[in-house]
Automatic annotation (TrEMBL), chain A:
GO terms for biological process: transmembrane transport. GO terms for cellular component: plasma membrane. The gene is araP. Keywords: Cell membrane, Membrane, Transmembrane, Transmembrane helix, Transport. This is L-arabinose transport system permease protein AraP. The lineage of its organism: Bacteria, Pseudomonadati, Pseudomonadota, Alphaproteobacteria, Rhodobacterales.
From TrEMBL, chain B:
Keywords: Signal, Transport. One of its GO terms (cellular component) is periplasmic space. It is found in: Periplasm. It comes from Jannaschia rubra. The keyword Transport applies. Pfam families: SBP_bac_1. This is Probable sugar-binding periplasmic protein. Belongs to the bacterial solute-binding protein 1 family. Part of a binding-protein-dependent transport system for a sugar. It comes from the Bacteria. Residues 1-23 form the signal peptide. The keyword Signal applies.
Length: 309, 415
């Protein structure tokens, strides 16, 4: 008797499945799952694979040979590595110039004049064209004999300077080429930021007699903080992963003096004369560690901002 | 409508049966290569001749771009091996030989008497007493000169083998006085500088020492290596400034314009000089001048080769093609189009004064034939070495640092 009643009772009130009880907690993870899976397979696991490979001597074809930290020990004693590291520092520091420069250009272009959109898009143009094209343009600009800059220097001083053939100037020359599109990028970030600056605050500041630098520093810039944050992030990342320009303009030369870490990693692991996967991976790990300092800083700042809200 | 459909069906059925029949008849040989347009056409001709003689074999040529090929070969040898693949002789093929990617083709050499007919390339094709491929072309290196520039500087134009190193260096002073670069090069891609080093070493210390050095048996800090750089230092001030920012074609332009007099280059540069407007009237060739008098003359002649991957599906027919590629007939066809020298001793040299001079130069080089620095030395050592050469040509005062760095690399790379 009681047996017959059971199915009826359960039909009336279905069992509270695990799914139903945890639905609200599980749903976000289910939505995240495809992205997380991709991220794990294509981003996280290669990071650990690189670390693993960096402990081997491997040419990509033959047997892997476990050599422990020997690749890192060799790095510590490798002049080319220190050259690349120093050039990366130069890139980081000088690339930051694009933030104030981009801000100045954004403020300059943030006017209402006929045809302003045209000017804006022209200033933005260097960022639209490929880095390879930028590299080529600047190589011709610096080229000995027929380069504009070379001829200008020759006209001014009597002797031309081939920027890309001189180990003292070559990195600065490439960074200058890199700044050209980067400034345009930062400029566009600030232009969108300037659109959102509250006009009532500007007017209030103006009534209080703020002008020029004081207006910029105390009223406009604080409102541009999100744009500044993004500009700094993209500039730091852009500086650390600078590769295309080095490859196009000098191939790391003359005699390796314009290498950066990412290019050195490519040379050691993947170029015609390299195929030292382990050593290349070790360089990549060092580059990752440097990036990690900045990335953690950015994440920490974002997390703090979220919590303050 | 119905008729059309029926007709199309019949047609496609007919097509299906014919393609099936062709596929059954012909044995496929897949060939991965990296030819420029002119040699590609010539190789297609060679293939057509081979297929005419062997109707049961079909060769499918898959042509890659040069630079891409160097990376691609590492992938396709393991992942999807063809039956034939282009590569280079000397140490450049060693990684593929030692990792078992290239097939031993000593039997092709033996059955066809190639040790006799391809004798000049035997040494550079041999590793562990076995041959690993068949060479089909090479070309000489040497000094190409603008005879107008010689005239402008008031220097007598030397013949192919007239002047010694002392005289060459003395001529450089005359060129400098006339505002002409005595020696030009463009080392942006590094390798052109290695040509100068190779010749200086071959002339100062000879072929055997050069091979010992490139195979890591002599320290870079050896006195004999320093002697090479001492000779180099004599011409260093007369080399085109800013060569580190120039491609080799940019330097070729300097020679064409008469701004430079001499260029240590491979014969492939002749085409570029002629495109720039030079003719056989004012373009000259000479062997790299003699430095030490007591050593047999060695030359530099990079050799291009074809190999069979170990994982090939159809190695038997691939070997038949290699045997054909080694014949004088096939080598004539392809070298006439490439403007290079055939290796088969019975082949005819193309009718070109530079190739004739090159053939004469190479066939009388009793010292030996080097491949080129980046083919004789392992890739990593080649890169470090060529960077060192470039640095030396810009800053000769850094020589000690350069040699120490190369020596450190040597102890690691050849361990």
């Amino acid at each position: 008797m009681t047996r017959a009643a059971l199915p009826a009772a359960s039909a009336e009130m279905p069992p509270r499945s695990r799914w139903r009880t945890h639905q609200r907690r599980l749903a976000p993870w289910l939505f995240l799952a495809p992205g997380l899976a991709m991220f794990a397979v294509y981003v996280v696991s290669p990071i650990f694979q690189s670390m693993w490979i960096s402990l081997y001597d491997w040419d990509g074809l033959g047997e892997k040979v476990w050599i422990g930290a020997a690749n890192y020990a060799e790095l510590m004693d490798d002049d080319a590595f220190y050259t690349s590291l120093w050039n990366n520092v130069l890139w980081l520091v000088l690339y930051m110039l694009s933030v104030p420069a981009g801000l100045m250009m954004a403020i300059f272009l943030n006017q209402t004049i006929r045809g302003m959109r045209l000017y804006k898009s022209m200033f933005f143009f260097p960022f639209v064209i490929s880095q390879v094209v930028v590299g080529l343009i600047f190589s011709w600009f610096y080229a000995p004999d027929f380069g504009l800059l070379y001829q200008l220097i020759e006209w001014l001083t009597g002797t031309g300077v081939a920027i890309l053939a001189d180990d003292r100037y070559v990195t600065y020359g490439i960074i200058a080429a890199g700044l050209w599109p980067q400034i345009a990028y930062v400029m566009i970030l600030y232009l969108t930021g300037l659109n959102n600056v509250a006009t009532d605050q500007i007017e209030a500041a103006r009534l209080d007699g703020a002008k020029g630098w004081r207006m910029l520093w105390h009223v406009v810039l604080p409102q541009l903080r999100p744009a500044t944050f993004i500009a700094v992030v993209v500039t730091v990342i852009g500086a650390l992963r600078s590769f295309d320009l080095v490859s196009v303009m000098t191939d790391g030369g003359p005699y390796g003096s314009s290498r950066v870490l990412s290019f050195y990693m490519y040379e050691q692991a993947l170029s015609e004369y390299g195929y030292r996967m382990g050593y290349g991976a070790a360089i990549a790990v060092v580059l990752f560690a440097i990036m990690m300092i900045f990335i953690s800083g950015f994440i920490w700042k974002m997390w703090r901002d979220e919590r303050e809200r | 409508m119905f008729h059309y459909a029926k007709g199309a069906l019949a047609l496609s059925a007919a097509l299906l049966t014919t393609t099936a029949a062709v596929a059954q008849d012909k044995r496929i040989v897949r060939y991965n290569a990296d030819f420029d347009p002119a040699p590609l056409a010539a190789m297609e001709q060679v293939i057509a001749d081979f297929e005419a003689a062997n109707p049961e074999i079909e060769i499918q040529l898959n042509n890659f771009d040069h630079e891409g090929y160097k990376t691609a070969i590492r992938n396709f040898l393991t992942a999807d091996a063809p039956d034939l693949a282009n590569w280079y002789a000397g140490n450049r093929m060693a990684p593929f030989v030692t990792s078992g990617q290239f097939m031993d083709v000593s039997d092709v050499w033996e059955e066809n008497g190639l040790e006799e007919s391809l004798g000049s390339a035997l040494a550079s094709m041999t590793i562990d007493d076995k041959q690993w491929g068949v060479p089909y072309t090479y070309y000489q290196w040497g000094i190409y000169m603008n005879e107008d520039a010689y005239e402008a500087a008031g220097v007598e134009v030397p013949g192919v083998e007239d002047i010694t190193w002392e005289e060459f260096v003395a001529n450089c002073e005359a060129f400098e006085a006339a505002g002409i670069d005595c020696l030009t090069t463009g080392t942006k891609a590094l390798w052109p500088g290695a040509g100068i080093f190779d010749y200086l070493n071959l002339r100062t210390n000879g072929y055997d020492f050069h091979m010992d050095l490139t195979s890591g048996e002599v320290p870079w800090t050896d006195e004999r290596v320093r002697a090479v750089f001492d000779e180099w230092a004599k011409v260093q001030p007369y080399v085109t400034k800013n060569h580190a920012a120039l491609e080799w074609q940019d330097a070729a332009a300097l020679l064409v314009q008469g701004k430079a007099a001499n260029y240590v280059m491979g014969n492939f540069a002749v085409a570029v000089f002629k495109e720039g407007g030079m003719t056989e009237e004012n373009l000259g060739f000479m062997r790299f001048p003699e430095i030490a008098t007591d050593i047999p003359r060695a030359e530099e002649a990079p050799t291009d080769t074809v190999h069979i991957p170990t994982a090939a599906q159809n190695p038997d027919d691939a070997k038949a093609f290699l045997a054909y590629l080694a014949t004088a007939e096939a080598q004539n066809t392809i070298n006439a189009a490439m403007g290079q020298l055939p290796i088969n001793k019975d082949a005819t040299v193309p009718d070109d004064p530079f190739l004739k001079a090159g053939f004469e130069t190479l066939s009388t080089a009793e010292g030996g034939i080097a491949q080129f620095f980046d083919r004789d030395a392992p890739a990593e050592m080649a890169k470090m070495g060529m960077e060192g050469f470039q640095e030396f040509m810009v800053k000769p005062e850094n020589l000690d640092r350069i040699l120490d760095r190369l020596e450190k690399a040597r102890t690691r790379i050849y361990q």
